[in-house]
Design brief:
Blueprint (H helix, E strand, L loop, with lengths): L2 E10 L2 E11 L4 E6 L5 H8 L7 E6 L2 E2 L8 E4 L11 H11 L4 H14 L15 H13 L5 E5 L7 H16 L3 E5 L3 H7 L2 E6 L2 E7 H8 L2 E7 L12 E6 L3 E6 L2 H12 L4 E7 L3 H9 L5
Parallel strand pairs: 3-8, 3-9, 6-7, 7-8
Antiparallel strand pairs: 1-2, 1-4, 4-5, 9-10, 11-13, 11-14, 12-13
Helix pairs in contact: 2-3
Length: about 300
C-alpha cells in the first residue's frame, strides 16, 4: 500500500497553494513534510484526506481514490485542535471511533490502553476543557489513532508540547510505524524529522524544493560541518579556501566546508599552532539544508 500524488495542483482563485506536486509515500514508513508557514503542507493534507479536491492531478491510496469508503483506514491529527470542550473524554472518543466504524466496547478498551500508555488513566471521565493544552493534545492524538489506521496524517503533532510529552508522543508514533502504519507528518522542528523519517519533502511556496531519502539528500548536499575547539583564536579559518560559512562559538568555531579534503588541509594548518581539543567532521544537518534550499521564505 502506498500513497501517490501525481501532478497535484490546488488553486484558490488566482492563488496557487500547491503547484504540480508529485510524491510516492511507501507503506509502513514515516514521511516528513517540511516547509515554512504558507508552503502548502496543510492544503496537501486536506487533499489527501479528500476534504479538498485538487484543481489538477490525482491522489490515490493503494491505487484507489480516497473517499468515505476509505475513511476507516485513515487517521488525522489536525494542527488546529478540534475537540468538544464540554464533552467528557470517554464520550468524545467513543463517538468519534463510532464514526470510524468501531464498536463501543472496542473503542473503550483501546481508550484504556492509550490513557494508561500516556499515564493519564483518570482523564476518561474529565471534560476536555478541564485538561491542560498538552493533555488535550494527547486526547486529540488518541482520536486520530484509536481505530488503528493504515495511514496516519499528523499536522505539527509536537507543537506546544513540553519535552516529556514530546518523547511520549514520539514513542507512540514509532510504535504505530512498527505495527505497519504509514505515517506522514509535518513539522517545523527539523530535529524531529531527522530523527524519525527515512524520506522527506521540503515545500516552498507550494512546490517541492527537496524530495527524497534523508541519506541521499545529505549526501548530495555535499557540504560538511566541522567543529573545532582549541586553546587559541580560530577566526582566521573563516577565510580559508573551501570554507563556505563560519560561526564563532564559546569554545572555538563551527565551519561549513565543501568537503573532506578541506578538513584535512585545515587540520594540517592548525595542528602546528597549538593544542586542538576537538576536531569533528559531521554530516550537514537537515536545518542547514532547509535554510539553504528554502531559507528565503522561512520565518
Amino acid at each position: 500500500m502506498s500513497l501517490e500524488l501525481e501532478h497535484v495542483t490546488k488553486r484558490f482563485g488566482k492563488f496557487t497553494a500547491v503547484d504540480d506536486l508529485s510524491l510516492a509515500i511507501p507503506e509502513s514508513e514515516m514521511f516528513g513534510f517540511l516547509g515554512a508557514n504558507g508552503a502548502g503542507k496543510t492544503t496537501t493534507f486536506r487533499m489527501i484526506l479528500g476534504l479538498l479536491d485538487p484543481s489538477e492531478g490525482s491522489i490515490t491510496w493503494n491505487g484507489r481514490r480516497i473517499d468515505y469508503s476509505t475513511s476507516p483506514l485513515i487517521g488525522y491529527l489536525p494542527e488546529e485542535r478540534g475537540l468538544y470542550p464540554k464533552l467528557k473524554v470517554k464520550d468524545q472518543i467513543v463517538y468519534l471511533a463510532k464514526l470510524r466504524g468501531m464498536a463501543k466496547q472496542d473503542s473503550l478498551k483501546a481508550l484504556d490502553y492509550w490513557l494508561e500508555r500516556f499515564k493519564v488513566p483518570e482523564y476518561a471521565n474529565k471534560k476536555v476543557e478541564e485538561l491542560s493544552k498538552g493533555n488535550q493534545q494527547k486526547i486529540q492524538f488518541i482520536t486520530a489513532v484509536i481505530h488503528k489506521p493504515k495511514l496516519l496524517i499528523l499536522d505539527e503533532p509536537f507543537s506546544g508540547l513540553d519535552p516529556v510529552n514530546v518523547e511520549q508522543l514520539k514513542e507512540a508514533v514509532l510504535e504505530l510505524k512498527e505495527s505497519g502504519t504509514t505515517i506522514v507528518f509535518s513539522s517545523h522542528r527539523m530535529e524531529h524529522v531527522e530523527e524519525l523519517c527515512e524520506h522527506l519533502c521540503i515545500m516552498q511556496k507550494g512546490r517541492p524544493v527537496v524530495h527524497g531519502s534523508l541519506k541521499e539528500i545529505k549526501r548530495s548536499f555535499g557540504k560538511k560541518n566541522l567543529v573545532i575547539h582549541a586553546d587559541y583564536d580560530l577566526n582566521f579559518l573563516a577565510n580559508a579556501p573551501g570554507v563556505t560559512k563560519a560561526k564563532q562559538t564559546a569554545e572555538g568555531i563551527q565551519l561549513q566546508i565543501s568537503g573532506e579534503e578541506t578538513a584535512e588541509k585545515i587540520f594540517m594548518e592548525i595542528a602546528s599552532k597549538g593544542f586542538v581539543r576537538k576536531f569533528v567532521l559531521e554530516e550537514p544537518s537537515l536545518n542547514d539544508i532547509f535554510i539553504e534550499k528554502a531559507g528565503a521564505s522561512y520565518e
